TrEMBL record:
It comes from Brevundimonas diminuta. Belongs to the arginase family. Coiled coil: none annotated. This is Arginase. SUPFAM superfamilies: Arginase/deacetylase. Pfam families: Arginase. PROSITE patterns: ARGINASE_2 (PS51409). One of its GO terms (molecular function) is metal ion binding.
């Protein structure tokens, strides 16, 4: 369970997105029983920061990277044990940690279902005009497009020519 809301922009000043509640709600509704598992790794919910960070043009950028590094480590351990992980998260920014766990386990496939493309990057929007939210950038970041803090560490960016969305 990866209860993150870090990749989301607040709906209004002072609002903290509640998407982090998604994994708990699905668990309470019986998801673990439905998929037949009792082995669960739960990451601690990260703190959401409403303030811009001078180190990033992406809302919660440094925290997103730290959270995804922890997620990648947990997934790598699960994969090394021969298990098939299912990751339930709160927002799309967790895609980066999921893909970062994949080196040496190729080929890697990704099925991404969302209400929009999640492919904003400096080539198709003005990244200086507003603070970006990783939930609208995640596929671009995963293919190495965008702010280096999040785009350059994910090993999947090496294979961006193999991406279809």
């Amino acid at each position: 369970m990866a209860p993150s809301n870090l990749g989301l922009r607040p709906l209004r000043p002072g609002h903290v997105p509640g998407a982090w509640r998604g994994p708990g709600a699905l668990e309470a509704a019986g998801l673990l029983t439905a998929v037949g598992t009792d082995a669960v790794v739960r990451l601690e919910r990260p703190s959401y920061n409403l303030e811009a960070n001078p180190a990033s043009r992406i809302c919660n950028g440094p925290a997103i990277r730290r959270f995804n590094e922890r997620l990648a480590e947990a997934l790598a351990d699960t994969l090394s044990a021969g298990e098939f992980p299912i990751v339930i998260g709160g927002d799309c920014s967790i895609l980066l940690g999921c893909l970062a766990a994949a080196p040496g386990r190729e080929p890697v496939g990704l099925v991404h279902v969302d209400g929009h493309s999640d492919f904003y990057h400096p080539g198709n929007y003005d990244s200086d005009s507003r603070l970006g939210s990783a939930a609208g950038l995640d596929l671009a970041l995963a293919t190495g497009r965008g702010e280096p803090l999040l785009a350059d560490w994910c090993p999947s960016s090496e294979h961006s020519a193999q991406v279809a969305a």
